[in-house]
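Lab notebook: predicted structure, single chain.

Context: the supervisor wants predicted structures on file for every construct in the current expression panel, including those that have not yet been purified. This is the next one on the list. No modifications to the sequence; it matches the entry in the shared construct table.
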Amino acid sequence: MPDIDKKGIFGYFGGGLRDKVTLVRASGDLDADLTHRGNRRKFKVPGRARDSAGRSHVGEHLRKERELQHGKREKGNGPPGLFSLKEKAAIVTGGGSGLGRAIAKGLADAGAWVAVADISKDSAQSVAKEIRARKGQAIALKLDVTQLTQVEAMAQEVQEKRGQVDILVNSAGITFRSPALEYPEGEWDRVLNVNLKGTFLCCQAVGKAMVAQGKGSIINIASIGGLVGYGGCIAYLASKGGVVQLTRGLAVEWAKAGVRVNAIAPFVFDTPLVSQIKVREPDHFQRMIDKAPMGRLGHAEELIGTAIFLASAASELITGHILAVDGGFLAQ
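Prediction complete. Output recorded below exactly as produced.
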């Protein structure tokens, strides 16, 4: 048998254990037996494994097979079909600033119609305007996530406008730093109400629509603070730990209804919230950065790919997962 171009065989599948190609020499041709994700196909590769230009016939056949499996790339500069959010309706709470703003714009760039919801109507309108300027589709909604009537009205409005809700990103959040022995009860209540109660109310209201329609993806913004401890913000840690368990519990409860619930756990990102801490407590801020193997702040735009992945068909078997975007912080 002539030398086989191993890159041609495995280049499109990464050599993964679920993708196996068996080549058999037969009457001057190559018979290729492709097993991909449990689906077995056979095809014949005429002549030698390489053509005169050094291109692998096998690699070309595998490319065509993968197109059949995953769909061809969208025309133009958009994402591959597997990651496309075209015709999807999304809600992003806390979408007027910080991580929510970046995610709202990213989902719109991937093809989604986006409802930018924020306690500041002006901020929400500004982000929606940015999206429309980029040829995307967006509306702005004023929303206090701690108020059930407002949350239910938001879910109903999106359903009426789009007929369904496909994606919910819960990004609204606040913090307050103080030693635990001196932590004010009022601030404890405020942080837990926004970060945990608000996330639950939005999951509940939008989850009703998703369960009824038999599909949907919810993405909660948790934090590494929901997975490890550090000093000075006990209410924030408690709220984000609650978001982690809320995510897992809803994922189990709604899985058979076709609704996926996952969370993103960011490290320290360059947002207005973090900027305040950087100014008030520069030593604490620097200690956190120094602990991360990558040794730097995250940028809001670096969450876009993660959010699109969890919102799209690319993650259709993933639910109840907490995906850390943390520069290696939790790997230590």
